[in-house]
Amino acid sequence: MGVKYAGLGLLMLLALICDYKIYRIKNAVVVPFIVAGILTNTVLGGPEGLKSSISGILLPVLLLIVFFALRMLGAGDIKLFSAVGSIMGAEFVMYAMAYSFISGGVIAVLIIALRKNGKERLRHLVAYIKSCFLSFSLLPYTDFEDKSDGAKFRFSYAIACGTLIQIIAAFYL
Questions:
Q1: Mind listing the pLDDT tens digit for each residue in 2-41?
Q2: What is the rounded CA–CA span in Å between residue 143 and residue 146?
Q3: For residue 138, what is the DSSP state?
Q4: Where residue 96 falls among pLDDT bands split at 50, 70, 90?
Q5: How many structural domains comprise the chain?
Q6: Predicted local confidence at residue 149, as pLDDT
Q7: Burial of 15 from C-beta contacts in 10 A (0-12 / 13-18 / 19+)
Q8: Taking a C-beta distance cutoff of 8 angstroms, is the pair 96, 162 a contact?
Q9: Which GO terms describe its cellular component (predicted)?
Q10: Residue 150 falls in which region: left (phi positive, over 0), alpha (psi -120 to 50) or beta
Q11: Using CB atoms within 10 A of its CB, is residue 80 exposed (0-12), middle (13-18) or buried (19+)?
Q12: Cα 98 to Cα 108: distance, rounded to the nearest angstrom
């Protein structure tokens, strides 16, 4: 089990560094951990370990694809969740995702409070919802390439927080 947590820690560290430097989480960071998670779980748990890894990889993709399609979450974030799932399994990644979204909400509120742009963000959300209803379609929520609007933060920070909370919860609950 220590090998899994060491791998998870290294994955988070590399993903945070990559996301901080280039605002993306590269495949070169997550793919080796997905492969390592599959191999480790297969060696340690046999067919059940393999099943655990595969379900841990697929669960984030299936649950979060809508957020990607709406441009509310980047592909790298989903792949990072899949790498976590590959290493730790579906149940772990499910809780880590829940804690990550809660952490993301806390981070977003803090950013809005610090930037004092709550009214602007609320107007943007209302305009987005209105546009979706008027056009009868789901439109992209944001442009990831535009870093100047003050509305984005690196979600890998929330993923790292959520994963850490799940590690603590797994040990103490």
A1: 899 999 999 999 999 999 999 899 999 999 999 999 999 9
A2: 6
A3: P
A4: very high
A5: 1
A6: 59
A7: buried
A8: yes
A9: plasma membrane
A10: left
A11: buried
A12: 15
